[in-house]
Amino acid sequence: MTRPGPPHPDLPAVSLIGAPTDVGAGRIGARMGPSALRVAGIVQAIADFGIDVRDGGDLHGPANPQRVAVNGFRHLPEVARWNELLHESVLAELRAGRLPVMLGGDHSLGIGSISAVARHCRDTGRRLRVLWLDAHADLNTAALTPSGNLHGMPVACLCGHGPTALTGIGGHTPAISPQDIRQIGIRSVDAGEKRFVHALGIEVYDMRFIDENGMRHTMAQALLGMDEATHLHVSLDVDFLDPDIAPGVGTTVRGGPTYREAQLCMEMIADTGRLGSLDVVELNPALDVRNQTAELAVDLIQSLFGKSTLMRPADD
Predict the structure, then answer these.
(1) 161 has pLDDT over 70
(2) Superfamily of domain covering 14-304
(3) pTM as predicted
(4) What contacts 24+ positions apart, CB below 8 Å, involve 90-94?
């Protein structure tokens, strides 16, 4: 379904890709995330900028069998299949010159989405920058977590540490370098993950850094070094936000960014003009209050596409 406003020559066409699964999570409910975002008006919210928006509907993958972990991973075959489907869908939209927006679903889907973006960057000679907006580092492995929930492992898998069924998606292992990613808003990291983050050298701007330096300085650092050859991918886990304003997630962690901090984060990303792809994940309507978390997510997405209080010169 396409609902374009007046055509805007400087903004890319957008394709929405629904991935309604919680097969990688410990709690069910994120499978309803794409529907909640549509109910909150995501199509029209983007189309209001004069962007050509095409909602391609939902991918159809395996159901959540709700089994225990096997060899350290829960639902590995199902998670792998969802990510294979998503990889192909995201890659097709990128090759068509469109900006894919993945509506999750749990954050294990970031493996398929980002591996497709990384593949496209390799094919086109562009540099990749990933902003991972999340309360969690998502750098667990089977050896580090007893749960085996794969939504806690996507960064590790993308960096080549995980089962071949996930690290090999896209035909290149690792899909990304640890130097390609910037993690923002982190405030819940397991002991083993802390050592792994340092060993890999991932740039992490945790909530203490944001508290001490402010969101403006944080984002300036996270966006440093990008140029016209950079493809910017944003992977937004809704639990990035403080649960007081975003209760509709399965793994809430107190002390996240406020509404205004989150808006500034999105506005500064929009100011770069480099946004090339987007994930919105871990929205769990079963835990929400009157769809307020979905509505907040749509509000933030509008800011990613350029909504601001005032029209500002580009060099601001």
Answers:
(1) yes
(2) Ureohydrolase domain (3.40.800.10)
(3) 0.94
(4) 90/17, 90/116, 90/117, 90/277, 91/116, 91/119, 91/120, 93/15, 93/17, 94/120, 94/276, 94/277
